[in-house]
């Protein structure tokens, strides 16, 4: 990393990997955080996590790289595939397009947060297993998170409606008929 002085302000070129680091924090120093980081408190799956992150860090990267919550997948990283779908205050969002700083103070739920404390699967997760609604499984966490929201939003009344409201989640393996069947089954069970 190099610095240059321009009109009295230091200009810092980004490191080769693009990630600024607070070297003092890594060494255990009590110096204040670098001016390139924000101190955030994120509530994820009911637990609050304190993180020092650059302002440009996405929720997806914070989840996967900083908190080891790797159930949320990085697919296209451009908001096109839905693999990174999580819930923020009960609404589905694409974690790759959401900055971590935007969700401070809000409730974030990932695929890991759907399972009950005793290990019981969420109704949608169980339906995905029963209907064999996955092949490679890479898109499955995002599909499940969208399916939970789809049902909660009341958009699981017909196969056509399920397909429409699940359209933001892509499956390269083509397991769509099984995904629709799983959402239909879970919606029926949750209504009962």
TrEMBL record:
Its signal peptide is: none
One short Pfam name that applies is Fer2
The answer to keyword Iron applying to this record is yes
> Where is the segment annotated Disordered?
1-37
Family matches, as InterPro entries? 2Fe-2S-bd, 2Fe-2S-bd_dom_sf, 2Fe-2S_ferredoxin-like_sf, 2Fe-2S_ferredoxin-type, 2Fe2S_fd_BS, Aldehyde_Oxdr_Iron-Sulfur, Beta-grasp_dom_sf
Q: From what superkingdom does this record's organism come?
A: Bacteria
Keywords assigned by UniProt, alphabetized: Iron, Metal-binding, Oxidoreductase
Q: List the protein's name.
A: Xanthine dehydrogenase YagT iron-sulfur-binding subunit
